[in-house]
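Supplementary notes for students who missed Thursday's class. We covered one full example, reproduced here. Read the sequence, then the structure, then the short commentary at the end.
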Amino acid sequence: MPTDDETAPRPGLSRRGLLGLAGVGLGAGVIGAGSALGIESAVTSAAAASSGANTTYPFYATHQSGIVTAAQDRLHFAAFDIASGVTRAELIDLLKDWSYAAGRMTRGQEVSPTGATGGSLYAPPDDTGEALGLPASGLTITIGFGPSLFDDRFGLASKRPPKLIDLPEFPGDNLNAAASDGDLCIQACSDDPQVAVHAIRNLSRIAFGRASLRWSQLGFGRTSSTTRGQTTPRNLFGFKDGTANLKAEDTALVRKDVWAQGSDGAAWMANGTYLVSRKIRMQIETWDHQSLKEQQVVVGRDKGEGAPLSGGTEFSSVDFTKKQHGVPLVATTSHVSLAHPDHNGGAQLLRRGYNFVDGNDDLGRLNAGLFFISFQRDPEAQFVRIQNALAANDAMGEYLQHVSSGIFAVPPGARAGGFVGETLFA
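Structure (token representation):
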């Protein structure tokens, strides 16, 4: 493991960052909306099959990690609003401080050399300490910028990427505005929930006085695979999810459909991407009362093997022309049919979703579902096109409700000695 001196991008946290670490009463407020249950570099399929406790992913790289990285088992996602009166220089310092701390935490270190126990006995520790003794556990920290950051506060209006659109309202949406959007976002993924929570907790402390937590979500049990070495997981409806997801090994497709290019209208976003988040509540009790046949027709796959209803095994191509008694074996209103690239002009997404369970609602129903995350080069041509098709006709829509939404520009990875977002402010 490299030492701090070998890879640290800065001498340490800025004075504002250190003051943030000394802020009072931040730890209890970090968990936010998803508190009930917890929960780049392209990798080879062999290394990606499962990340061990000592697995580390580079923070300083061409692309940010946590995108094509082998999807970890746990998530803590957080969105932030910049505080009133914060200057452009202070925003840059925040991004430098976050990058410095993230670079250390992704190596399994504390946020600063003095950390939780090495500082003064008469001052708050730099690090909250709950990850002391824990390895990195595959921690990745991914930082993004929301459309609202590109207003007149920081002189960034002319830098807003054309691809960073305002998402439209889709049929059936019931969005909670307070749990949507944000100026900044951080996605922390790890195979240890305490490591992921520790990352968001400490980055929130560092932001004290400059940015405040707007909303956050805990996730567990990935609902897609991002490498061929990973098995296909199941969602809370009991079906395999993400069988046809883009994989890190599909380098040509990832280059075409995930990574932004300088020619896309914002040169500073080259080697970055765009993140869409959607919190989708599943009507668990209603779904559980449907017959197995009905469930399979709605999805378009069998529940056991995960094979398309047109036949074959899980990874068999879907045959939409195959019929029985004149009726397509894969219904035109099935989720598989409506989300398929063949029916969306070839549009594909790289998905990194997670299950969530946020306890029960006031009627005693399980408040649970999918925290959907996708990465794409062109949100309008990819996510919006697919979601419009699903919102209009998806038979699964009867069992789903979209309650939160966000879109963020994820800039390229930080260079050694630099910070995430440096290209934006150059």
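Commentary. Residues 55-113+126-425 form one domain. Confidence is low (pLDDT under 50) at residues 1-10, 24-50. If anything here is unclear, bring it to office hours.
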